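Predict the 3D structure for this chain.
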Amino acid sequence: MQNNLIYLCGPHGSGKTTLGKQLAKDNPCFVIPELFSRNVKFNTEDAEYRQILKIGTRAVENFEYLEFAKNNPGRIVLGNRCIYDVLAYNWIYVMKNWIDKDTYKKYNLFTFCSFKNENSEPLAIIVNPGLNIVKKHLEKRWNEEGKKWREEDIHYAELACQAYERFQNKENILYLNKEIDLESRSDIKKAYEWITEKFKAR
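Done. Predicted structure below.
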């Protein structure tokens, strides 16, 4: 496991970007890398094919994060999404009946095979404030940036919140189940303390 790499995970609209930007703003040693692989676009509506592409590109992104972290040992690197996100969306796809159970098992096998062993149980912060907050954030983003794939499907968003709940008791995860509040900063402080504790421990 890469010592100085922490991932930010959660449903679309959960507040990951808000948390990451604030942590990096407050702490000069925190960095959010710009990834080459983030430029990949998915021009397909086929759910099954889309998820196969997502698994592969997430694995490439994670390789980039690992290399960046190794080359910047004095920084704490904040990654955007990791294997937990892929597993969450695999589960959503089977719950939406976009894939069958056998395909779901194959997707999970493909996922574990696609991620390096040292990054199969990474340190991560999951932001999952619940469906109402996610809906509020998505609606605000739609007005500013437009909609992303399937975001208007409320059942899809609801399942995403449920999918991330499945990780809340994992040892390597800090689970935040409230909206990121930039005024009280309670969750930002909690995240910072958790990250620095994990960083020192390893």
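Residues 34 and 165 are 28 Å apart (CA to CA).
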